[in-house]
Sequence to fold (675 residues):
Amino acid sequence: MEFVIGVDYQTLARAIIFSNIYVLLGLGLNLTYITTKIPSFAHGDLATVGAYVSYLTIIFLLQPLGLPASVYVTFPLVALVTGAVAVLTYVAVFRPMIRRGAGITPLMIASFGLHFVMFAAVAIVADYVQNTYGVLSRNVLLARWEYIWPGTDPLTSALINTSIMVVVITALLYLLLYKTRYGVIMRASIDNLYLAKAAGINVERVFAIAWLLIGAVTGIAGVYMAMFFPMTEELGWLRLAVVFVVSVVGGLSNIYGAVLGGYVVGLSLVLGAAYILTPLGVPTEFQLVIPFAIVIVILLFAPQGLAGIISSLVQRGRR
Amino acid sequence: MILQIDPGLLLVLIRETAVLFAIYGIYVLSLNLEVGYLGLPQFGKVMFLALGGLAVGGITTKIALMTYAGINPLANIDLYCSAQQYQAIAAVNKVFAASPLDGLAFFLLSIVLAAVLAGVFGILMSGPALRLREDYLGILLLVSAETVRVVTTYTPAVACGVFGAVVPDPFAWMGDFRPWGYLAITFLFLLLVFVVMERLANSPFGRALRAIRDAETAARVFGKDIVKFRIRVLATASALAGIAGALLVFYNNFVNMGQFVPLVTFVGWAMLIIGGMGNNVGALAGVAIYYALDRILSIYKESIRQVINVDPIFFQYMIFGVVIILVLMFRPQGVFGEKPSKTLSRRILERLHGEA
Fold:
């Protein structure tokens, strides 16, 4: 029981914050998987783009105009720009390739090519801004512009804000998918592509809009990432393996699997490092091995992910 | 915009590029066996390169230290890694400089161990490769490679962890000719691997692999044991990648396990995609194109910097990204597409039948 009692607030708060961020990243990746049938290697770079859009907006728009410099003011622009980038990748690369009947592996490699392009584009912008305007563009933390609730410390505020974000975004996605006509169309396209096409739905346009959502959610997740990890052009790419783990643990083809996966991975990562690895004298860098071990076990024994196991258990229970 | 380059310097540049071409040639040929012929989404390729590096930097280096210098690095690994490495390795190098036989024995032991270690891991990986779907398998391999990297990088006893391990030079006896000698050795390995791959690809084994890739059920109907084929391919390709890893470490005389990031996997894929999957000549052409582009851009680095004040390496990344996407979209078979496998000519076949 010492495990449960011994958890201190700081570590727990960080664990939940990271889980929240991974949930947001995983949501986007699962939507990608649902629409293109691949886990995209360019997903982390969408988050990087979001972080940089937020930072550059603060530096070049909000501060010169004397507006309140808060990341939340930049969110609409972040969502819009990252969403546009995501739609562009879908329209310019994935859609033509899917039309030509490209298989899973070529699509995954194409997404890797996209990673190269986006990663380099962000780096070029960062270099240019630094060399031309003398603005620090690497290893910045966006936490400086996070909203701090009155009477709390930054950690608690981040905990509150990321949790609110997860609740709001999952609720919005739920409302969109289950309570609007458009959501019905989108779910129809996801469930049965050919039937939806036969019913006269323009599936490609539906997926393009899904990609707008992917970009928006991932961009916002990227802003939160840049509050805890130093912002460089590799911000998203370096953590992509963990996001893959989140999606696989939850189940790739279920949107809300990412919520489950995010908490399993985030909590096991931070709590595991603090309460299993440190007492054993293992360096904290090993913490990444925990989610990797989880996903290897899950892939070997239950490739449909935790969400799949739960839903099949529920079905068995009903019978 | 023709730059004046010192011819001596150019020769060195070409030589160093050729060594890397040979090493990555082996790496990409082995990737081609898995990807081009068997259709495996091998996104964890760097793992086997890393294991080859580990065999040299982590195992045979320690053996050499104990035999030739009487030092046991494991006795105080932290002190050894941070302070004693260079002197200890220099002592071993002195032995190798005097005795080519010892050097060659060390080299061969390292290569064999690298191949065995990577090959065994390849067989381990064939377990999941038989049961998982393409996308999940790709993720599993990627994550396994990351696990290997994290574990080996942060365990100092393996290869001095984040410090990186200095590796003795088995060719110290070559003296000033060492760079040229090493070029010859890597090309010898490349030639050997290429011939084996060509023979393999055009043999009944290679045709069976293509059959499994294109129509698994049909191949099974014809009595091909798919499980056995996959295990053999993974073991062979992994062992070859292990050899490439060992050669890479001997080229640098240094290994840092942290260098084996997923990017290395994808650079291999990029080379293969550009050159053409399922074609060994294409695989090598891809490596050559990659390095040609890489070196040309690096020569013009400073001129680019004068036009726009940005690190030119990022333009290189961007060009590669665009090239990969364009090739996949408009020429999925690569520069050299897959060719039908060569079989014996009809006349020879008829003669064989006549004899039988």
About this structure: Chain A touches chain B through 50 residues (CB under 8 Å). Residues 120 and 140 of chain A are 18 Å apart (CA to CA). Chain A has 13 helices and no strands.
